[in-house]
Design brief:
Keywords: Membrane, Transmembrane, Transmembrane helix. With 483 residues, the chain is mostly helical. It has 18 helices and 2 strands. The chain is globular.
Length: 483
C-alpha cells in the first residue's frame, strides 16, 4: 500500500473508532474526576487548567445544559481527548510505516508493521472497554490518564528519535513532552528516569556507543525538566491559591505503604518530635492512625500471608483494597484533626500545606526505618510488599493477574521478549538490528521503571500500568517481522 493511501486509512480508522465510542459512551465520570474539575490542591496543574479552559470557553458563548448526565463542556473535553488518541494511534502507525521503509523492507511489510502500530493502541482501548472490569476507554474519562497515556506514546517515539539523531529539535521535543506529561500526572516523572536509564546504558555501559558527553547532556536536561515541573506546579498554585508551593499529597502513597507494614512499637521513632514546635506530639498521632488501621484490619497482619508463598497475589489485593481507606478515611482525617488541634490559627492553603508536611514527616521516618531494615533483616514484611507489588505491576503491564495462569504467561512473554532481542543483538550486528534493540530497550525500560515506581510508591492497577502495553507487543511483532 502506498504511503498516501495508508496515511488516509490510518487517520480514518482511529477517528471512527475513538469518536464513535465517545458518542456512544459519552462522558465517563470517575471517582477522582471531581478533584480535577474543582482544581483541588492535591492535583497537578495541567489537567485542571485544561478543564477550566474548556469550561470558560463554553461560558463565554453561553453554552449550558447537560450531555450524558454531565455538564455539556465535559463532552467537549472527551472529544478533544479522543482526537489526541486518534492522532497518537495514527502517528504511531505512520511512523512505523515510514521507519520500516527506511530500513529497506518491502512496502507490504511496511504496511503490516504500520497497521500493527495503529492497532496496538486501539487494542488496549478495546480491552479496557469490552474486556476489563472498568468497561470504558480512558479517552472518555475525566481523568489525567486521558491525556498522559497518548502523550507517553508520543514521548517514546520522540525519545527513540533522539537516540538515533541528537538534534536540537529532538532534544527540545523530549524535554517539553517530559515536562508536559509530568505536569499532567506526577507518575510520569518516570519519563525523566527512562531517558536517563537508557542513556546510561547506551552512553556509558555499551562500549560501542559510549559517549559521556551525551550522557551528561541527558542528565542536565533531566535536571532542568525537574526544575521546570516544580516551577510550573508552584506558579500554578500561586496563581490559584496565592501560595508558591507544590501540590499537596505527594507523601500519602508512601505513607499508606509504610503504614501497611508498620508496628505499634514504631511510635518510638517519633520521640524526637515530642517537644517539637513544628510537629508536637507526633507519636500520639501515629498511634491513633496505626490503631485505626489495625481496628479496620488494614495492616499486613490481616493479609493471607506475611512472606512469599502461593498467596502473594492475595496479599497485594488486600493491600490494594485497603490503600484508599488508609489514605482517605484514616490518614487525611486524623492529620487534619491533628493540625486543627495543634495549629488552630491555620486555615485555607496554609492548613493544607501543614497537613501535607505532617504526612511527609510520618512517611519519611517510617520509610527510613524500613529501608535500613531491608539491609539489617528487620523489615521482611516491607520488602515482601515491595517485591510483590513490583512483580504484580510487571504482570499487569503486559497481561493481567486473573486468571492466575496469566501470571505464568506474562513470565513467558517477558522471557521471549528478552531472548528475542538479546539473540538478535548477538547474532545480527548490523545497524538495523541495533536500532530495533534500542527501541526494544526504551519500551522495556519504560515498563520496568513504571512498575518499580508504581509498585513501590502506590499500588499496581491497570490504569497505572498499561502505558506501554501496546508498544510492548508492537515491539515483539517488529522483532519477528524485521528478519
Amino acid at each position: 500500500m502506498d504511503k498516501k493511501r495508508f496515511k488516509i486509512i490510518s487517520i480514518i480508522i482511529p477517528f471512527v473508532f475513538y469518536i464513535g465510542m465517545a458518542i456512544i459512551d459519552g462522558t465517563v465520570w470517575c471517582v477522582d474526576s471531581a478533584s480535577y474539575t474543582s482544581m483541588d490542591f492535591s492535583r497537578e496543574p495541567v489537567y485542571p487548567l485544561f478543564l477550566l479552559g474548556i469550561r470558560k470557553f463554553f461560558e463565554l458563548f453561553d453554552f449550558a445544559g447537560t450531555m450524558y448526565g454531565q455538564p455539556s463542556y465535559l463532552f467537549c473535553v472527551v472529544i478533544i481527548q479522543s482526537l489526541l488518541w486518534v492522532y497518537t494511534a495514527a502517528r504511531l502507525g505512520i511512523y512505523m510505516y515510514d521507519y520500516t521503509l527506511e530500513q529497506r523492507y518491502s512496502r507490504q511489510r511496511a504496511t503490516i508493521v504500520g497497521f500493527m502500530g495503529l492497532f496496538s493502541q486501539m487494542a488496549v482501548a478495546i480491552l479496557n472497554r469490552f474486556v476489563a472490569n472498568r468497561g470504558s476507554m480512558y479517552s472518555e474519562c475525566i481523568m489525567t490518564e486521558a491525556l498522559a497515556m497518548p502523550l507517553f506514546v508520543l514521548f517514546s517515539i520522540r525519545l527513540f528519535e533522539l537516540f538515533r539523531n541528537y538534534s536540537a529539535m529532538n532534544m527540545l521535543a523530549v524535554f517539553l513532552l517530559s515536562v508536559l506529561i509530568s505536569s499532567i500526572r506526577k507518575q510520569m516523572l518516570i519519563t525523566i528516569l527512562i531517558m536517563g536509564a537508557v542513556s546510561l546504558i547506551i552512553h556509558l555501559i555499551v562500549k560501542r556507543t559510549r559517549d559521556p558527553r551525551r550522557l551528561l547532556s541527558i542528565v542536565i536536561m533531566g535536571i532542568l525538566a525537574v526544575i521546570s515541573i516544580g516551577v510550573i506546579d508552584r506558579s500554578y498554585n500561586y496563581a490559584v491559591r496565592g501560595k508558591f508551593a507544590e501540590h499537596v499529597g505527594n507523601s500519602k502513597g508512601t505513607l499508606c505503604t509504610v503504614l501497611y507494614t508498620a508496628e505499634a512499637e514504631d511510635v518510638h521513632i517519633y520521640d524526637k518530635y515530642e517537644d517539637s514546635q513544628e510537629f508536637p506530639e507526633l507519636g500520639s498521632l501515629y498511634t491513633r492512625i496505626y490503631d485505626e488501621c489495625v481496628a479496620k484490619e488494614l495492616t499486613i497482619s490481616y493479609a493471607p500471608s506475611q512472606n512469599f508463598d502461593s498467596t502473594w497475589l492475595e496479599m497485594t489485593s488486600h493491600y490494594a483494597e485497603g490503600y484508599d481507606i488508609i489514605g482517605f478515611d484514616i490518614v487525611i482525617p486524623y492529620c487534619q484533626q491533628y493540625v486543627s488541634e495543634k495549629f488552630p490559627e491555620l486555615s485555607g492553603p496554609e492548613f493544607d500545606i501543614k497537613e501535607n508536611e505532617v504526612e511527609a514527616v510520618l512517611a519519611k521516618e517510617l520509610l527510613l526505618k524500613d529501608i535500613k531494615g531491608i539491609f539489617t533483616g528487620k523489615s521482611p514484611e516491607f520488602l515482601y510488599v515491595l517485591v510483590a507489588n513490583v512483580a504484580k505491576a510487571l504482570v499487569i503491564s503486559v497481561a493481567n493477574n486473573r486468571p492466575a495462569i496469566l501470571v505464568k504467561v506474562s513470565i513467558f512473554i517477558y522471557l521471549f521478549y528478552l531472548i528475542l532481542f538479546s539473540v538478535r543483538l548477538i547474532m545480527k550486528k548490523d545497524e538495523k538490528s541495533r536500532e530495533l534493540c534500542l527501541f526494544a530497550l526504551i519500551v522495556f525500560m519504560g515498563i520496568l521503571i513504571n512498575s518499580v515506581v508504581t509498585g513501590s510508591m502506590i499500588f499496581p492497577q491497570p490504569r497505572y500500568m498499561c502505558y506501554g502495553m501496546g508498544l510492548f507487543y508492537l515491539t515483539i511483532g517488529c522483532g519477528i517481522l524485521y528478519q
